[in-house]
User: Which sequence fits this backbone?
């Protein structure tokens, strides 16, 4: 997906100003910025709920402005914050929406619906015949994601999809969404105002302000090298700590000079796959100052607080 | 009322069941045509309002004015043109349904949540499909509430059309008044009210059948 000099003007005011960036296939690009930064407007121009004033948006090299809007929209998954499930249709009917519009045979729709409900963690036999009003907010949002995925769209647009659920449910939904996205290889354009969500989900993060793209970079680079004071402030003064979410224990230098037997027995056992943030929390909680890194049964070395400190400070 | 005559003569009622059945048919026919034609016109006017909101003021003003014209006066005014016919009766009856029906159809469709409409358009429903598959089903409860009101008021108004030779149960009321015969007058009034209550109950049942999701919440 590519934006080329895309602009949107409302009554003389530029809501989006010469926006250009590319989202590699199968990746998640998160548009993040304060309200009024033009992120939602940019997203809605992709499926032409809003028509750009200038520029072009390409999907797979094809200009969306040259396509018939309803046909275009059926090929693009769309998830919004309020979910927008159809209250008069059952969960199964909601999920089957786009396949039905595309004229799939009934049996294929039924099979796909069941598969999708299971994929988003909703037991099909329990949920298929219920109505949206009978579901919790988190369950409704899962249905929203399933509905968007129904016709296997190569591209998904998500506008603050997890904004209306509580933090615990949001965290779970984010993890499940990442798993599904990796699994399906969908290209995703994701809008949020929450920088933590952007860092967690984005392969690339586009920071917007006043309709302009301020910085477009992978999250680690955004945290390490904010291009200006606005981005630095937006990512937060704790950006060093935030980076720890992106780094794993296996990715840093361990102290291999210490024998395992010499390490305090209180020290937590860490796997190479856990994030430095989790490692830090467990090390602080154990009062051992170090963590023992073990890959299955193999002892790899110890992780020290000073190593983590260096990663927080490290701006390179 | 004649001296010594009871308020209701049950023997007269028992011997006139055939006439009641005939008047029932007439009453139902006048009502169904009025609400049916009224609904079609109101539906078209509502779509116009939804597509071009600046037509709402004029349409509301016209249907509102129609609603306030006394029915007797309206029928009297129409007689020179359409005579003592069903057409005269229906023009009056239809025009009284429009205000209620237009108001409820427009309110029902406007009441569809914005996020539902956005999701429908964003997933590739064509504009006509959004109306028929999303907006109208969701507006159904409010629309049927309007049809109930229009039906009840039409059933009442049909009795007035007895003055121009139509009238269903209104015919019994009219004759009852002319002959000072309370049995016939009361029979006409009670049957008209009973029909209104029955029609309302049937429409409530219809709404329940058509909106199963409303009970699920």
Assistant:
């Amino acid at each position: 997906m590519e934006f080329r000099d895309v602009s949107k003007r409302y009554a003389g005011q530029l809501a989006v100003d010469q926006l250009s960036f590319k989202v590699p296939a199968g990746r998640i690009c998160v548009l993040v910025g304060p309200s009024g930064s033009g992120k939602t407007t940019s997203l809605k121009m992709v499926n032409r709920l809003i028509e750009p004033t200038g520029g072009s948006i390409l999907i797979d090299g094809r200009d969306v402005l040259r396509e018939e809007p309803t046909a275009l929209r059926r090929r693009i998954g769309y998830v919004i914050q309020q979910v927008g499930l159809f209250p008069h249709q059952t969960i199964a009917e909601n999920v089957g929406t786009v396949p039905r519009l595309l004229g799939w045979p009934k049996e294929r729709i039924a099979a796909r619906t069941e598969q999708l409900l299971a994929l988003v963690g909703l037991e099909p036999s329990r949920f298929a015949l219920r109505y949206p009003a009978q579901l919790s907010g988190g369950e409704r949002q899962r249905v929203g994601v399933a509905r968007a995925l129904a016709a296997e769209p190569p591209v998904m647009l998500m506008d603050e999809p997890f904004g209306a659920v509580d933090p615990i449910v949001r965290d779970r939904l984010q993890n499940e969404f990442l798993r599904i996205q990796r699994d399906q290889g969908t290209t995703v354009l994701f809008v949020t105002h929450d920088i933590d969500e952007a860092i967690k989900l984005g392969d690339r993060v586009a920071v917007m302000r006043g309709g302009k793209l301020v910085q477009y970079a992978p999250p680690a680079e955004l945290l390490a090298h904010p291009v200006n004071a606005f981005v630095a402030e937006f990512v937060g003064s704790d950006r060093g700590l935030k980076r720890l979410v992106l780094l794993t224990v296996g990715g840093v230098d361990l102290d291999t000079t210490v024998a395992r037997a010499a390490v305090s027995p209180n020290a937590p056992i860490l796997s190479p796959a856990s994030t430095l943030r989790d490692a830090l929390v467990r090390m602080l909680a154990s009062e051992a100052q170090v963590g023992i890194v073990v890959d299955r049964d193999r002892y790899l070395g110890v992780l020290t607080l000073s190593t983590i400190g260096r990663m927080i400070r490290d701006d390179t | 009322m004649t001296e010594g005559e009871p308020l209701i003569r049950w023997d007269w009622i028992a011997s006139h069941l055939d006439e009641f059945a005939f008047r029932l048919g007439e009453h139902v026919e006048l009502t169904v045509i009025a609400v049916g034609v009224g609904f079609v016109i109101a539906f078209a006017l509502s779509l116009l309002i939804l597509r071009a909101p600046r037509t709402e003021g004029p349409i509301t003003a016209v249907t509102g004015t129609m609603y306030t014209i006394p029915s007797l006066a309206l029928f009297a005014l129409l007689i020179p043109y359409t005579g003592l016919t069903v057409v005269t009766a229906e023009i009056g009856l239809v025009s009284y349904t429009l205000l209620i029906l237009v108001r409820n159809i427009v309110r029902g469709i406007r009441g569809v949540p914005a996020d539902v409409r956005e999701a429908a358009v964003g997933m590739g429903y064509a504009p006509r499909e959004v109306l028929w598959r999303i907006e109208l089903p969701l507006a159904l409860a409010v629309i049927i509430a309007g049809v109930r009101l229009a039906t009840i008021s039409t059933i009442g108004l049909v009795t007035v059309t007895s003055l121009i030779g139509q009238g269903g149960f209104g015919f019994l009321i009219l004759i009852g008044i002319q002959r000072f015969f309370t049995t016939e007058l009361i029979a006409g009034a009670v049957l008209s009210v009973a029909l209104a209550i029955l029609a309302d109950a049937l429409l409530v049942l219809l709404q329940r059948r058509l909106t199963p999701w409303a009970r699920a919440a």
Q: What stands out?
A: Chain B has a mean pLDDT of 94.
